[in-house]
Amino acid sequence: MKKSLKRMALALAVVLILSAGFACKSKEQGGNGETTGDKLKVALVLPGKKDDVSFNQAMFLALDSYAEANKDKIDLKVVENMYEVADIEPALIDFASQDYDVVFGHGFQFMEPIVKIAPKYENTMFLLGTGYKTVDNSAVYDVHLEAGGYLMGVVAGLATETNKVGVIGGADASETFRGHEGFKAGAKSVNPEVTIEEVYTGDWTDTVGAKEAAIGMYDAGVDVIWHSGDGIGLGVVQAAKEKDKICLGNVADQNTLAPDNVMTGIVYNWVTVIENIFNDINAGKFKGREESERFYWITIENGGIIYAPIIDPKGMLTEEDKAKIEEVYQGIKAGTVEMPEIDEPKN
Question: What is the mean pLDDT of the chain?
Answer without folding.
Answer: 88
